[in-house]
C-alpha cells in the first residue's frame, strides 16, 4: 500500500526537484552578470586656418572641470520627463563627463592654436598667463522630444594671472549650449550626438578665447 502511494507521488516529487534546480543560486550556479558597455566622446580635432596662423602668446592652464550634481558620475543620464532624470543600467561613460569634456577641449585648443601652450593646471611646466575653468550644467539625453536629443551646457570662465600676485582677474565668462539629434535611440546614438554637441561648443569656445586673448 505504502509502495503504491510512494509510486503515485514520485512524479510530483520529481517535478518539485526539477523546479528547484531551475531556480538560480539553488544549485550553486547562476548566470554571469550582464557586461557594462562604456562609451567615449570622439570627433576630429579642429584644423587651423593655415600653417602660418599665429597663436596668441599665452600659456593657458586648464583647471579640472566641475559638473552639476546629476552629471558627476559615469552614469549615462536621460530624461523621460522635464522633472525626472534616470540612468542606463548597463551603459556608462568611460570616465566622468567633466574629465572627458576637459580632455577634448584641451586637445581642440592646442590643435586650433588658440593659444601658444595648453597645460593642465595641476601639471603645468611653466607659469601660466591665463587660467580656464568650466562647469558642466547639463549632460544628458532628452527623450521628451522627437527625435531624441543630446543636451550639453557648459559655463566657461577665463582669467588672467597677475604677475607677482596671488589673485586672478576674470576677463570672460560665458555659457554655451548645444543640442544634437540622436541618429538612433540608444546609448551609442547618445555618444555620437553628444560628441557633435561638444565639437560645436569647443569650436565656439576656442573662437571666444582667441578674441579675449588678443584684446
From TrEMBL:
<dbReference type="InterPro" id="IPR005586">
    <property type="entry name" value="ABC_trans_aux"/>
</dbReference>
<protein>
    <submittedName>
        <fullName>ABC-type uncharacterized transport system auxiliary subunit</fullName>
    </submittedName>
</protein>
<dbReference type="Pfam" id="PF03886">
    <property type="entry name" value="ABC_trans_aux"/>
</dbReference>
<feature type="domain" description="ABC-type transport auxiliary lipoprotein component">
    <location>
        <begin position="39"/>
        <end position="204"/>
    </location>
</feature>
